[in-house]
Amino acid sequence: MTPGIDPAAPVVSARGVRKSFTTKDGAVVEAVRGIDVEVRRGEAFGFLGPNGAGKSSTMRMVGAVSPVSAGELRILGLDPAVDGPRIRARLGVCPQEDTLDNELNVRDNLVIYARYFGLSRAVARERADELLEFANLTDKARAKVEELSGGMKRRLTIARSLVNRPEVLLLDEPTTGLDPQARHVLWDQLFRLKQSGVTLVLTTHYMDEAEQLCDRLVVMDKGLIAAEGAPLDLIRTHSSREVAELRFAPGQQDAALPGVEAAVAGLRARVEALPDRALVYADDGEAVLGAVHDAGVRPAATLVRRASLEDVFLRLTGRTLVD
Ligand SMILES: Nc1ncnc2c1ncn2[C@@H]1O[C@H](COP(=O)(O)OP(=O)(O)OP(=O)(O)O)[C@@H](O)[C@H]1O
What we know:
It comes from Nocardioides fonticola. By secondary structure, the protein is α/β, with parallel strands linked by helices. The chain has 11 helices and 13 strands. The strands form 3 sheets. A 6-stranded mixed β-sheet has the order 5-6-7-3-8-9, with helices on both faces. A 4-stranded antiparallel β-sheet has the order 11-12-10-13, covered by helices on one side. The radius of gyration is 23 Å and the shape is globular. Residues 21, 23, 29, 31, 49, 51-57 line the site of adenosine-5'-triphosphate (ATP).
């Protein structure tokens, strides 16, 4: 065993971790205000929160590229303040922006990157071909990067971050800007990676991504952790099973709300008014619609859906994830 490496250590262990920045005009921004997190081996762990929640700042600390301002952080059992290079050698990092080399073709992006890690030319080529196959990009090997779709570029970026066979892959907003189909292809790639034993640590502001990919996650807001758990457990703890959404004609919602409240009073329901719709939390959404109708309240449109992490976020913070 390599000295100082504990194979059983958690991938990430954070206690009271803080990150603050001083801006050019001297103001102090507290991006992360004291978080406790433990990421276990082999899991997919997410940081879910809106823009500015402190997710990227956290990921940069976890990636051992940005020092903690306070608190204790261990990555793979090592202290990033003293063991940064050893930690980084065992991580793959997929940043928010694509940093591919547009001058090179797809395959050479992987080969050259593998050469940085000290692989021989022959081994680098072999590794590149294996990763092209994994990313479903074999038929694009000779294409220029600029010829790739957004989804293909992301898959190539992920492939590139795997060149050093990392134990842990850090992904900052992996599917931002991709269309739904490209997102599903990417989720599949990440799922296969997890199946192969790689620990995934990702940030996202998409609740469906967090639900699809993460075994466990923390809900982050304003530099703090608002809740932690498996997606379904968080939903069960913080929401009813279903949500009835009621949309009213412009300007009608305020007048209609007391009627809605009265109609659902017997259903163990909770009403949440957003600017554009009223949400009624109850275990039986259809029963809510029936009660509202029986009470003579007439929304312009209705919808019953399963509760999601978006509802958890709203419950915990009073705001929606995506403004
Ligand atoms: N280098 C920096 N200097 C000053 N302030 C910063 C710096 N980096 C981040 N911040 C601030 O810290 C807060 C958290 O930013 P961070 O990027 O970590 O959030 P985020 O949840 O990742 O959001 P996004 O998805 O928009 O990146 C924000 O208010 C941001 O403006």
